[in-house]
Design a protein that fits this description.
six-stranded mixed sheet, 10 strands, alpha/beta, binds adenosine-5'-triphosphate, single chain, 36% helix
Length: 260
């Protein structure tokens, strides 16, 4: 059964008024169904509407056309069934790791004791035990990303929306967080919609890779990734199966990049 249904969704941003008004169509007639517990990856060049589509799913903005359903109900705004890990690390600099993680639970109105134990559980899960009292500037970029992930997980959302969460990280940290995320996903069983413009990352993580194209942003292709689960490790990138999937997606992506 589909947990998210995107039906004929378009989104146009308008800026200015009257004859000065400019319009940008960020998403054009997107149709997509995401299955419960699926790890879906959206892949596409910069500016093709990936973040816009994610914000539409979260309900931060409303589609100018079409509709989005979550568990059969139209999205009217953000809710605790969805949590976002943003493209830019989005921590409050004056709050410690613990207090940043607890933020979503505070908003949710979780009782104090439960709030403390839940936040600690997710801090431990993302490997930040011992750093509870550190401020963001005292953490590395990878650790800050983990705080963002722990914060999103702690409200126990059914759907985790991740917008290039590893985009600013070095290759090694990125690879280790990819493994950690797969481990968390297999234990927690959540639906993940993950955005990236990194082809290898999309194949390594996803059950399915959805390719988006630019101007206007459209969903052009969907590729099932039939690599084994759990993924045995990064060595899988060297297998013939991985490389053949990579070649197939790259053929399409290459056409897109020529149009950017
Ligand atoms: N708030 C906004 N107001 C006006 N235009 C916007 C706004 N947000 C995005 N856009 C436009 O919509 C298009 C898609 O932007 P979006 O951020 O969704 O792309 P993206 O695929 O996430 O890119 P990137 O990979 O660089 O993050 C771009 O042309 C952008 O200029
Ligand atoms: Mg983006």
């Amino acid at each position: 059964m589909s947990i998210v249904e995107i039906k004929n969704v378009s989104h146009t941003f308008s800026k200015g008024t009257g004859s000065e008004m400019t319009k940008t169509q960020a998403v054009c007639n997107a149709n997509l169904e995401v299955k419960r517990d699926e790890f879906l990856v959206m892949l596409g060049p910069s500016g093709c509407g990936k973040t816009t589509l994610l914000r539409l799913i979260d309900g931060l903005i409303k589609p100018t056309e079409g509709e989005i359903l979550v568990e059969g109900k139209p999205v009217t705004g953000p809710g605790f069934d969805r949590a976002v890990v943003f493209q830019s690390i989005n921590l409050l600099p004056w709050r410690t790791t613990f207090d940043n993680v607890v933020l979503g639970l505070e908003i949710k109105g979780t009782p104090n004791e439960e709030m403390r134990s839940t936040a600690q559980k997710y801090i431990d899960m993302v490997g930040l035990s011992g750093f509870e009292n550190h401020y963001p500037h005292e953490l590395s970029g990878g650790m800050q990303q983990r705080v963002g992930i722990a914060r999103a997980l702690s409200v126990n959302p059914k759907i985790l929306l991740m917008d290039e969460p590893f985009g600013y990280l070095d290759a090694l940290t990125r690879m280790s967080l990819q493994m950690e995320l797969l481990d968390i996903w297999s234990k927690q069983k959540k639906t993940i919609i993950f955005i990236t413009h990194d082809l290898d990352e999309s194949i390594f993580l996803g059950d399915r890779v959805v390719l988006m194209s630019c101007r206007p942003g459209r969903i052009t292709d969907t590729f099932p990734i039939d690599l084994p689960r759990p993924r045995p490790g990064h060595d899988i990138r060297n297998t013939a199966q991985f490389q053949s999937i990579r070649a197939k997606i790259w053929d399409k992506l290459k056409e897109e990049l020529q149009n950017v």
